Amino acid sequence: MDAWHLWVIIALALVVAEMFNGDFWLVCLGIGALLAAAVSLVLPGIVPGILAFSLGSVVGLVSVRPALLRYFHRIPGLRTNVDALVGRVGTVTEAIEPGTGHGRVLVEGENWRGVTLDERALPAGTKVSVVQVDGTQLVVEKEPES
């Protein structure tokens, strides 16, 4: 088996593995492996192939990966991490007192420090909805009675 065959097999394996990953790291390594296969067709030896693989991978990571991330991960209005908590309903676990304005709120299985916008007292057990996230605390308002 020639060296270029091996590089093509490596490239295909990396592209297939990328299908299960989705971060576009492995496809960039696959680009490097394809470049190494092309170089191995022209130049004998393992060193030119390894250099081409390294160069192709770095170029892929610097130029191709950011373009792929921008193209495939552009979902307008997608909120992630703590920003995704805005609009969720939670329960006050530790009363939010009007003087301090601080208490605890359970949202999505996590207990957060909670405050209200109007500094109204909210007893434990009150259903609230998250208005905004301010650092490590949630700004909440009482959920309307249904």
Structural commentary:
The structure is a single chain. The protein has two domains: 3-72, no CATH class; 81-142, Beta Barrel (OB fold (Dihydrolipoamide Acetyltransferase, E2P)), CATH 2.40.50.140. The chain has three helices and five strands. A hairpin with an 8-residue loop joins β1 and β2 (103-107). The protein has a five-stranded mixed beta barrel. It is of the alpha+beta class. The protein starts with a helix and ends with a strand. The model has no long low-confidence stretch (mean pLDDT 87).
Instruction: Write down the overall mean pLDDT.
Output: 87
Shape: rod-shaped
E-strand count: 5
Q: How much is the radius of gyration in Å?
A: 26 Å
Helix content: 40-55%
* Spatial strand order of the main sheet: 1-2-3-5-4
The number of helical elements comes to 3
- The portion of residues forming beta strands comes to 15-25%
Q: Secondary-structure element sequence? A: HHHEEEEE
Task: Tally the structural domains.
Answer: 2
The separation of the N and C termini measures 72 Å
SSE arrangement:
Layout: H1 3-21, H2 25-42, H3 46-72, E1 89-94, E2 103-107, E3 110-116, E4 127-134, E5 137-142
Helix pairs in contact: 1-2, 2-3
